Amino acid sequence: MRILVAALGSPGHAFPLVPLTVALHDAGHDVTFATGPDLEPTIATTGVPTLAVGRPLFDVFRETMVARGMTGPPTTIQGTREIAGEVFGAAMPRLYAPALRDHLADRPADLVIAETGAPGAALAARATGTPCVLHSFGRRPLPIAPFAVRAREPLARVAAEVGIVVPAGEPLGHAYLDVCPPSMQDAETADVLAGLTELPLRPTGWNPPTPFTARRRPGTRWVLLTLGTAFGDAGVLRAAVEGLAAADLDVLVATGSVDAGELADLDRDGVQVEPFVPQAELLRSDDPPAAVIHHGGSGTTLASAAAGVPQLFLPQGADQFFNAAAVVRVGAGRQLLGPEATAPAVGKALRDLLDEGPERAGARALAAEIAAIPGPADVAARVADWAQPAM
Predict the structure, then answer these.
(1) Cα dihedral angle (24, 26, 29, 30), rounded to 10 degrees?
(2) Burial class for 256, CB neighbours closer than 10 Å (0-12, 13-18, 19+)
(3) CATH code given to domain 2-203+374-386
(4) Contact present, 128 and 21 (Cβ < 8 Å)
(5) How far apart are CA 302 and CA 198, in angstroms?
(6) What is the pLDDT of residues 109-149, one digit of tens each?
């Protein structure tokens, strides 16, 4: 079977699709992974053929804000939604839909797997009559989310611009690969998937080959601290490290979008500061962190949940607040919002999570729920069952 997988050029959007893509490739299918030109070389490390499409996501975000006369990120929820809606619902689909439509015309596929943040790929599938399955990168989108599981404005305008007809409110595919465990979903989002066949898929972390040597003191527990690759804040990381510093705890800081040089002075015995770390491998290792302190990005949230470790959330933007609330609701973590994230508060919250308390038990229960969901290899083995709409 020839399959085109497409995702936006962002680790949080593309990495969750890699395990199934690799499983399909390993099963002998002719798979191509299309993503942004800045991330394409990273995905290519899997050995799966890749295709660079569109432009870097953060460039498009920046240009969209500049076009609106903004000198920095939006400061209100409404402003954030407007910018996100323009980028995900219009600007990126304008880049993806024509390019992938032309690619599919030249190299027809049996199936398109479109990441939910890249509806332009689903439009290209519609234009070429190719069956399309949507692949989530986190929880089901809220009705207000800019991710168009169902065709609506402004995506409908883009479809019309490129000559693709999608009736208003119609799903952009026939099925939905859901990487989020049921207990973390919001009941109000169920209707978003009306008309789509839901296919449970175990969330499986992935990271590219990352040179890394851990500095650990023998017999000392360790925690992972990161704010991800999109909403990093040096001040928040610095305050967290201050709150976590203790003789009986090692802290690994992955600075991500923050320049590691800004925090180089924190690197010392008991605190290791790195630009990036092989997060997925560390969480699956024989020596996983005792807890993860992070922003609440979907990938980190689900990978930590699968590892059975309690989580302390310091959400910064986008869907991070909703992810944090979901884990807190199921009893597997805690959150500190905005000015609450002081050094003493971070330290106290972590100490509570390190105890054998309700959050640690909740984290184990959540991991057991995830472990029961079919994994990428199992889902790939049944691709013939879900690649085509049910007759």
Answers:
(1) 100
(2) buried
(3) 3.40.50.2000
(4) no
(5) 18
(6) 999 999 999 999 999 999 999 999 999 999 988 776 766 67
199, 386 in Cβ contact below 8 A?
yes
Which residue type, as a one-letter code, is found at position 248?
D
Band the pLDDT of 69: cuts 50, 70, 90: confident
Give the pLDDT confidence score for residue 371 in this predicted structure: 97
For residue 153, the model assigns a pLDDT of: 74
| Single-letter amino acid, residue 83 | I
Quick one: which of 286, 277, 283 has its CA closest to 227?
Answer: 277
pLDDT reading at 199 higher than 90: yes
2-203+374-386 matches 221-371 in fold: yes
**What is d(CA 312, CA 225) in angstroms, rounded to the nearest whole number?**
9
Whole-model pTM above 0.85?
Answer: yes
Which fold, 221-371?
Rossmann fold (3.40.50)
Domain ranges of the chain: 2-203+374-386, 221-371
By C-alpha distance, which of 28, 35, 21, 156 is closest to 85?
A: 156
